[in-house]
Specification:
This protein has 127 residues and is an all-beta fold. The chain is built from no helices and eleven strands. The strands form two sheets. Strands 2, 4, 5, 6, 9, 10 and 11 form a seven-stranded mixed sheet that branches. β5 and β6 form a beta hairpin.
Length: 127
């Protein structure tokens, strides 16, 4: 079992920045695939960014060039640096991990690839 706890959400004006963190505990492994997802009211959950290794990452087209995913294996923490935020980035953000494969070979943005989820942290961007 893996426990994931997100933090760092909040309210920010358009053009601002936030950094989300996701602390993992339990049966952690530096080789697991991890990702960030978001869900806005009335919309389906969508993949935002995923990481397999320092050199293997994936991003949704809507956030490319603005968001950066990274992880600190020593701290068992996943990050999402979000810059140039837009009102359409407003959503609940979740981190997730796939413990069924290690080492992770491909950074996936599909939610069904992940089997453990955090509770989420709210991001609100005002215009």
């Amino acid at each position: 079992q893996v426990q994931l706890v997100e933090s760092g959400g909040g309210s920010v004006q358009a053009g601002g920045s936030l950094r989300l963190s996701c602390a993992a505990s339990g049966n952690t492994h530096s080789g697991y695939c991890m990702g960030w997802f978001r869900q806005a009211p009335g919309k389906e959950r969508e993949g935002v960014a995923a990481i397999a290794s320092e050199t293997t990452t994936s991003y949704a087209d809507s956030v490319k060039g603005r968001f950066t995913i990274s992880k600190d294996n020593a701290k068992n923490t996943l990050y999402l640096q979000m810059n140039s935020l837009k009102p359409e980035d407003t959503a609940m953000y979740y981190c997730a991990v796939n413990t069924r494969v290690a080492p992770c070979a491909k950074s996936e943005l599909a939610s069904y690839e992940y089997n453990y989820w955090g509770q989420g942290t709210q991001v609100t961007v005002s215009s």
